[in-house]
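Example record

One chain of 111 residues, shown exactly as stored in the release files.
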Amino acid sequence: METSQREFELVITIVNRGFADEVMDAAKAAGATGGTVLYARGTGIHEAEQFFGITIQPEKEVVLILAKHETRNAIMKAICKGAGLTTEGHGLSFSLPVDDVMGIVHMNREG
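Predicted structure tokens for this chain:
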């Protein structure tokens, strides 16, 4: 399927634990209809911190949002403004193309 024909994109945002609500508030204001939050932990070079000699991995939240292609940019910009790298949430957001979707009645997909 060509990029211009894709109807949906998966917007993935990774933020510090406790900031998924900010991500979803910003995304919904920009046209997102919902999302899924997964809990994770960071493993990057700057993620491990020492606390009384014990290495602590900061907890993260991963927010998955299935968005229509035409709303993806607005959603990502809103997320970055509300919970991006320059905020306390230290968010990172990116999108991946989605070739096909089933079971999303609330988006009224034709076909």
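Notes: The chain is about 20% helix and 35% strand.
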